[in-house]
């Protein structure tokens, strides 16, 4: 890329186990090779392992962040950077609050605020140009307020993605208020630990941010939440629902359909994405007929199987044809 001197905008997102990417001198040299560059966005995810500690001449991870920050501060001090880590990954990010000319997706972890930054004032500014926020928890127990504090810094996002979530409130602190996400269009909630969704946190997103229309969620997480609710949650704002089923979610069950019907009465589009045909084996006809008859505003139904084929018999197709004819 250094042979392209006319580049003005460069954005890099790299996940690696190569420790050399933690060297600030290398990034300074790389940056200087672009004569016309005006915007440089960096998002590094470096696996924390023995090779990284050996490369940095460290015996433990206790001073990992400080060591890497010093490398960037010494060789690339003019570049606004935030360095932080979770249990497995070292993050080296451009501070996301610069006025980017193009929309960006920002991938991070809840420990974002516990890092070391080269420009604290810039970090405190409202984010600019962040379209989507992806938060990776890696099933590590993390305080609910760490998640909320992170989300509150990105109030203009249009979609938010959660992965590998294990939320706790071990210190029994008052739960922070989650600011309105007025631009939010899509919530993607991909797997709580043991499918046990954290009710208080999920409701702050699902019930209190009722302007978004699309919910994409693991089947087991959603069923767990609906079963634990004392009353029917108000999901009238959801028009598009995508359910993902893997082995941990168990089979799609006819008895669970009523939860969805009562919670999402105005649903227009339903997608059921199944990892294996074995998760959608029983009561196929009854499930499909119940979906078609119960969601009166439904315009689209998709059932996607990633492994194997769903063998709908001729009798099922015939019965479905009769169901459509009766509408």
H/E order of the elements? EHEHHEEEEHEEHEEEHEHEHEHEH
Summed over residues and divided by their number, the pLDDT gives a mean of 89
Q: What is the global morphology?
A: elongated
Counted by DSSP, the helix tally is 10
The number of E-state strands comes to 15
Domain module count: 2
Show unreliable segments: none
What do you see in this structure?
There is one protein chain. With 327 residues, the protein is an alpha/beta fold. It contains ten helices and 15 strands. The chain has helices at residues 24-32, 50-55, 64-75, 120-124, 144-152, 199-206, 219-228, 257-263, 284-294, 314-325, and strands spanning 9-16, 39-47, 81-85, 89-94, 104-108, 116-117, 130-136, 142-143, 159-165, 167-168, 186-192, 214-218, 240-245, 269-274, 300-305. α1 (24-32) runs parallel beside α3 and α9 (284-294) runs parallel beside α10. The N and C termini lie far apart (59 Å). The model has no long low-confidence stretch (mean pLDDT 89).
Helices and strands in order:
Elements lengths: L8 E8 L7 H9 L6 E9 L2 H6 L8 H12 L5 E5 L3 E6 L9 E5 L7 E2 L2 H5 L5 E7 L5 E2 H9 L6 E7 L1 E2 L17 E7 L6 H8 L7 E5 H10 L11 E6 L11 H7 L5 E6 L9 H11 L5 E6 L8 H12 L2
Parallel strand pairs: 1-2, 5-7, 7-9, 8-10, 9-11, 11-12, 12-13, 13-14, 14-15
Antiparallel strand pairs: 2-4, 3-4, 3-6
């Amino acid at each position: 890329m250094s042979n392209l001197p006319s580049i003005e905008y460069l954005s890099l997102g790299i996940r690696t186990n190569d420790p050399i990417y933690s060297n600030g001198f290398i990034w300074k040299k790389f940056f200087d090779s672009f004569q016309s560059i005006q915007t440089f966005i960096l998002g590094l995810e470096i696996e924390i392992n023995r090779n990284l500690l050996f490369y940095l001449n460290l015996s433990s991870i206790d001073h990992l962040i400080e060591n890497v920050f010093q490398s960037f501060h010494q060789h690339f001090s003019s570049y606004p950077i935030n360095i932080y880590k979770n249990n497995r990954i070292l993050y080296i990010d451009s501070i996301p609050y610069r006025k980017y000319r193009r929309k960006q997706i920002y991938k991070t972890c809840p420990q974002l605020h516990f890092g070391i930054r080269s420009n604290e004032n810039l970090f405190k500014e409202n984010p600019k140009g962040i379209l989507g926020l992806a938060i990776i928890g890696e099933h590590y127990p993390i305080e609910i307020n760490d998640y909320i504090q992170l989300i509150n810094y990105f109030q203009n996002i249009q979609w938010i993605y959660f992965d590998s979530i294990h939320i706790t409130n071990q210190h029994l602190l008052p739960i922070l208020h989650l600011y309105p996400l007025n631009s939010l269009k899509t919530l993607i909630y991909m797997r709580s630990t043991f499918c046990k969704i954290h009710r208080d946190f999920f409701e702050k997103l699902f019930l209190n941010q009722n302007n978004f229309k699309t919910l994409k969620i693991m089947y087991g997480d959603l069923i767990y939440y609906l079963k634990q609710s004392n009353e029917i949650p108000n999901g009238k704002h959801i028009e598009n629902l995508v359910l993902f089923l893997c082995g941990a979610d168990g089979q799609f069950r006819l008895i669970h359909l009523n939860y969805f019907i009562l919670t999402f009465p105005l649903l227009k589009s339903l997608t059921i994405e199944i990892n294996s045909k074995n998760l959608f084996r029983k009561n196929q006809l009854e499930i499909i007929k119940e979906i078609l008859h119960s969601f009166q505003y439904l315009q689209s139904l998709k059932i996607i199987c990633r492994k194997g084929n769903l063998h709908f018999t001729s009798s099922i197709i015939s019965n479905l044809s009769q169901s459509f004819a009766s509408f």
